[in-house]
Amino acid sequence: MKFTLREIAQIIGGELIGDPDIVITGISGIKEAEKGDITFLANSKYQRLMEITRASAIITSKEVTNSRRALIRTENPSLAFSKVVELVAPNYIRHPRGIHPTAIIGKNVKLGENVSLGPYVIIEDSASLGDNTVVYGGSYIGRSVVIGRECLIYPNVTVLQRVEIGDRVIIHSGTVIGSDGFGFATVKGVQKKIPQIGTVVIEDDVEIGANVTIDRARFDKTIVGKGTKIDNLVQIAHNVIIGKNSIIVAQAGISGSTILGKGVILAGQAGLVGHITIGDGAIVAAQAGVTKSVPPGVKVSGYPAKPHEKAKRVNACVQRLPEVYRKLKELEERVRELEEKQNKNG
After folding, report:
1. How many CB atoms lie within 10 A of CB 343?
2. If you placed Cys at 60, which of 19, 53, 64, 272 could pair as Cys (CB 3.0 to 4.6 Å)?
3. Buried b (16+ CB within 10 A) or exposed e, 171-193
4. Does a structural domain hold residue 290?
5. How many distinct helices (H) and strands (E) make up the chain?
């Protein structure tokens, strides 16, 4: 589909700088874009890319003031660009429609209106799927699972028994929800399994990336709060509670019974021990190892994690260790020479 920049700016509510009659025929990333494409730049520190892109127009933030390309300035370039994607390429993704004949549906299953099941989907007894939910091929929905409306479950997802999933939840391929929590007791040197009889609750508008594992609680519930977004390859252990609108980035790991408040950010490869609390709005930097609770609004980094400014000072000291070591050896040599001289002078 084709749109002029004038039309696009009106639809996304942006401020147009440049020729309003430029015709947009495609969308692309800023590095890959060609003439006729529209792209976006969300982070001003990459502004240099605006000068080398071949895109016909760029959606940017309000702080960008000039470019040799046409601009549409917005409050939120990423969100605006997503609207343009839906506008220019509305059929980019086509989900399964209807129920495939190879789908296996158990007893007493409740399917809402317009539910779609791909090839070889398994729905166990007493499960419930809400209106307009789509389950791609090869996925498994366990006994007594409840899934809300307008959910999207990609191929080879496993949702085990009694898990509850809200509305408009997206789950990407390879994810397992409701696996047993890691619970064992040592008896005479042998590890004995502790039954994990709780469940998992995924609230509305959550998105879960590929190959994520969310363990069921030992007795009660593991909870992922409304609006939270989880990247690929994240481990969430039993009885963890994640507050609303949090962000968990790839390869982060959260140990059992840890509580995250609202709006928490865990950056890539962050690791949290169990039974601690991360306060509302706190940020855990990439590869940080958190061994104790973090107050609300605090950014921590390093291992063991500490307030970010302090961690930077510690790291600066560590970087100077080779120089400090060299100076120390020089001082030791001078002291040795002085001692020898003093002994000779007796």
Report:
1. 8
2. 64
3. bbbbbbbbebbebeeeeeeeeee
4. yes
5. 4, 39
One domain for residues 168 and 37: no
Does residue 302 share a domain with residue 329? no
Query: Tokens 């120390």 identify what position?
Result: 328
Confidence (pTM): 0.85
User: Are 108 and 70 found together in one domain?
Assistant: no
Residue 97 lies in a domain: no
Indicate whether 167 and 186 sit together in one domain: yes
Answer whether residue 94 is part of any domain. no
- What average pLDDT does range 20-39 have in this prediction? 92
Residue 277 phi, psi (nearest 5) = -125, 135
Reported as a pLDDT band with limits 50, 70 and 90, residue 177 is very high
Number of domains the chain contains? 3
Res. 141: pLDDT tops 80: yes
Q: How far is CA 216 from the centre of its chain?
A: 20
* Cα–Cα distance, 1 to 6 (Å, whole number): 15
Spatial distance between the Cα atoms of 265 and 333, rounded to a whole number of angstroms: 50
135/141 Cα distance (integer angstroms): 9
pLDDT, one tens digit per residue, over 235-258 is 999 999 999 999 999 999 999 999
In the set 95, 100, 172, 238, the catalytic residue is 238
| 222 and 267 co-located in one domain | yes
Concerning whether 100 is annotated as a catalytic residue, the answer is: no
How confident is the model over 258-274, as pLDDT tens digits?
999 999 999 999 999 99
